[in-house]
Each structure stands twice: as C-alpha cells, then as structure tokens.
Design brief:
By secondary structure, the chain is mainly alpha-helical. Helices cover 76% and strands 0% of the residues. It starts with a helix and ends with a helix. It is a multi-pass membrane protein.
C-alpha cells in the first residue's frame, strides 16, 4: 500500500472519530446541562450556564420531593397508567400484527391500512370528541380512561412496527408447530411470541417513553389534581414571570430515571428489534 493511501486512510479514520465525538457531545450536552442546573442554587443558574457550580447542592432534589405535593402523586399515577398501557399494547398489537402479517386478503389489507392511517391523524382533531366520550362514561380524571385513550392513540405505530418484524419470522416454524398438533392459539404463544422478544422490548421502551412523557392527553383528560401524571406536575415551576430552573431540572432528572433505566436494560433487544423490523416492510 502506498504512503498516500495510508495517509488518506488515517485521515478518513480521524474524520470518523471527529464526527463520532461531535455526535456524542451533541447528545451529552443536554444531560450535562440538566444535571448541573439541578445542583445549582437559583441565583447561580443564570450567571454562567455552562459552568460547574461553585457550591453543588442536592437540596433541589430534596425540595422537589418534600415541597411539591404533586411529585409523588404524579409518580404513582404515571406508573399506574404506563405499565397497564404498555402491557395492553404489547399483547393486543402482537396478536393483531401476527394476523395481519400472515393474511393477504382484501379485508386484512384494509384493516392494516386503517390501523396505519391512524398515525396521520393529529391529536388536536380528536381531542374534543375523545374528552366528550370519556366524560359521558365517567372516565375523565381516571387512570382507566387515560389507559384506554393512550392505548388507542399508540396502537397505530405499534401495529406498523410489529407487523414489519413478524414478516421476518419464518412461516416454516408455524407449519411445523401445526404438524405437531398445535392450534393457532398455541402456535402464537409458544412459537411466535417468544421469537418476538426483540420487537416487544423495542415497543416496550418506545411505548413507555411516549406514555410516560405524554402531556397532551393528560392535560385534556386528567382534570383532577389527584389523577395528574408527572408531565402535569412539572408545570408548577414555570409561570408568566419566572421559572425555577434548578428545581425544574431536578424534577426532570428524577422523572426520566425509570425510562432511562428501562432503555439501558433492554438496549441490546431494542437495537436488534429495530434492525430486524427494517429488513422487510
């Protein structure tokens, strides 16, 4: 190999490392800012926004837990709404996507189209009818009403992603199970569903993220203070005149911990699930 080619290869690697470093910095800067803001006193926040605080403190975290009465209530409500929604979506969309992926009739194609078209409908278009319908059945300001609404809003993207993944699962496995005497129910739960671990982990993380951070649906449906989730409990730190950024970022950091931990635990499945689902559409 000539010296010129070696030099070009080294420059190419250096350029790649530089690009990767820049991307890492872009993604880490928000986390850095969020952390240093949360350990600053209020008067330090605006002095030098990027500087490490001279006197770091965890009092902001303590104040959020002890002074914001909505924090623990919001945490409880977020857990009580997110877990059932994620489980319901995983079970329903897995079964629905399997049926849609394995059948090519006009009816199934139409159903798949209807499911996926739901992605194109803005929430603002259904906000009022959603509220009125749940109000009439007494599910406003309730965890059950929020779970039903959020599951319906999330099901379109879940069906789209899971159906694409199931198309990569070999049909021969299902045929072999049928020969061994398994009915369709047994074939799905014993053969297909265990193979869906990567995509189920992916939709578990994504659905948890969307439901946990949901503000639009929560602000429309959760009118009572005792039913509010974390996104609604955060707004107490912002008003027309001032913003308590140190307390707000302490709140944000504690609020995002469950989703961050879940992602780190399921990261390898998430990556493989996305890659497998992208192979065949």
């Amino acid at each position: 190999m000539s010296a010129k080619k070696k030099t070009m290869r080294k420059l190419g690697r250096a350029g790649q490392m530089l690009g990767i470093s820049v991307l890492i910095a872009v993604f880490l800067v928000p986390f850095y800012l969020g952390f240093i803001y949360s350990i600053k006193y209020k008067n330090e926040v605006t002095l030098d926004r990027l500087a490490w605080p001279q006197h770091p403190t965890i009092s902001n975290y303590i104040r959020v837990i002890t002074e914001n009465s909505q924090f623990l209530v919001g945490y409880k409500n977020s857990i009580l709404t997110t877990i059932p929604t994620v489980i319901l979506l995983m079970v329903v969309t897995s079964m629905a996507s399997w049926v849609l992926a394995r059948n090519r009739g006009k009816f199934y194609n139409a159903m798949y189209t209807i499911f996926t078209l739901g992605i194109l409908i803005p929430f603002q278009c259904i906000m009022l009818p959603l509220y009125l319908n749940l109000y009439k059945v007494g599910l406003v300001s309730s965890s059950l009403g929020f779970v039903i609404a959020r599951s319906g809003l999330q099901i379109s993207i879940s069906v789209l992603v899971v159906t694409s993944f199931i198309k990569t699962v070999p049909r021969e496995l299902e045929e072999a199970a049928s020969i061994d005497g398994c009915n369709r129910f047994q074939t799905f739960w014993k053969i297909v569903f265990p193979l869906m671990k990567p995509i189920n982990a992916t939709q578990a993380v994504l659905n948890t993220l969307f439901v946990w951070n949901d503000y639009n649906t929560a602000v429309v449906l959760l009118r009572d203070k005792m039913s509010r989730t974390l996104p609604l409990a955060q707004i107490v730190y912002f008003n027309e005149n001032t913003a308590e950024l140190n307390l707000a970022f302490a709140f944000f950091n504690m609020a995002m911990l469950p989703v961050l931990i879940l992602y780190l635990c399921l990261q390898k499945y998430v990556v493989s699930g996305i890659m497998s689902g992208a192979v065949k559409g």
